[in-house]
Amino acid sequence: xEDCGKSLIGECKLHGPLIRAKDRVIPSRARLTLPHYLxxxxxxxxxxxxxxxxxxxxxxxxxxxxxxPYVGQLSTxxxxxxxxxxxxxxxxxxxxxxxxxxxxxxxxxxMFVRLARNQEEQxxxxxxxxxxxxxxxxxxxxxxTELKVWYAADYAKFMExxxxxxxxxxxxxxxxxxxEELVDPWICSSCGSTxxxxxxxxxHQCIHKDRV
Length: 212
Hints:
Blueprint: H1 29-32, E1 38-46, E2 50-57, E3 66-67, E4 73-75, E5 89-92, E6 95-100, E7 114-115, E8 124-129, E9 132-137, E10 148-151, H2 153-159, E11 186-187, E12 194-195, H3 198-211
């Protein structure tokens, strides 16, 4: 304490605590790359203060608008898996690599774009060009509309996924297969069955709900 000239373990009982000035919070690299006519919205807050984000338009975005390239780390294994985001891979020097985004400082804003569950809500198409992945709008996007993406036909073949989004009873379109060694299995609390992806578990749980 500079007032009484003593070194103290805690705050000074005579003159009280110090006034603490906090550093300014700097947005992550991914958030700083967001175009000015797009915005991030918190859609859900999960345990551990984990935010589920979506990308929304602030003004009309014309059809055939291209975004990209997608920024991520090339990896032979997928270390960061989210059932609400597309799994992306590219060909580099004859090898097939995942575009991994373990944290917001390793990617750009495109990592926040969620996958489309059906053709009605799809606004973007993902495709590979010259070893990079780009997103392009497939229709005009109105203000306050969320940007959602699915694979282009050729890229879907490359990713071994369905090229056409079909609106199912569960309204969920399955993700391309991901090696079981990369993610923990999803377990049904009703019957104990295990699934490699959350979307498959969600579809399965609809069966239990119908029976009830």
